[in-house]
Structure of Protein LEG1 homolog:
Amino acid sequence: MAFDLSCPGLIIGCIFASLARASNVSDVYPPLWKESPGQFSDYKIENGKYIINLWLYPERLGMYKILLNKTAKYFAKFSPENEQNILWGLPVHHGWQYQTGRLADPTQSTDCGQKPENHLCISVDSWWADLNYYLSAMPFLAAVDSGIMGISSDNVTFLPPPKDQMNFCYNVSGCHSSFPEAMRKWNEFYQCKILDVFETHGFYLSYDFSITGNFFLILFIFIFFLSFL
Ligand SMILES: *[C@@H]1O[C@H](CO)[C@@H](O)[C@H](O)[C@H]1NC(C)=O
Ligand SMILES: *[C@@H]1O[C@H](CO)[C@@H](O)[C@H](O)[C@H]1NC(C)=O
Ligand SMILES: *[C@@H]1O[C@H](CO)[C@@H](O)[C@H](O)[C@H]1NC(C)=O
Ligand SMILES: *[C@@H]1O[C@H](CO)[C@@H](O)[C@H](O)[C@H]1NC(C)=O
């Protein structure tokens, strides 16, 4: 197999994840998966840019949906329904955060994330939500930047949270300058040969992949990327 050795971490991650055997996964979709945006045109457009509000659960989830859709071709040979896509770990983990109330305002000084009235709100005070920002905004923008999303890098921008705006980045160039290492890693993920490896050799690597099996991958990604934040 022609592994690109500049991506050892990713390869380890994939092997690690492939060890995580999963049982039945057909209905482990994150909450509100069907209702969330599934293509760029489902988002608001302003001045030729798609505007994504990452502080609303369906809009953040929708980014994963687009990401999975655009990377599906790498896994299509082995799973027509795209259930073998290694990126599934990200939305599933986020769905768990939503379901368990981890995205709500932990200080309870606002009703952000409180059920039932404001349950879609993602609070900037939630540690989980902030961490997930780097596992949603970054992979998404890096994918846009790598050209696999089919839109130009300047055509997408995120809305800032109500406070702590300096802690986040909002577009491809902004994220590159604020978090160069994390963006570089994700760019490598899309550009280095790992996805091609799946396309050609997926049988060996992704044999045991599935939605729940990615729990270990997400753990790995956490550890891998935390060191760059
Ligand atoms: C997995 O789920 C599908 C649909 O829900 C079902 O048809 C199938 O029998 C299940 N497989 C196992 C091994 O439980
Ligand atoms: C993307 O940006 C270009 C200019 O860079 C603009 O011409 C185009 O209309 C934009 N596309 C969308 C879908 O907004
Ligand atoms: C990706 O999205 C397009 C447009 O919504 C859809 O036609 C296509 O079937 C999707 N592909 C996958 C693999 O989900
Ligand atoms: C990207 O965001 C930064 C702030 O984070 C802003 O200064 C810059 O103008 C934005 N660039 C584009 C192309 O929108």
In short: Strands lie at 44-46, 49-52, 156-158. The longest strand covers residues 49-52.
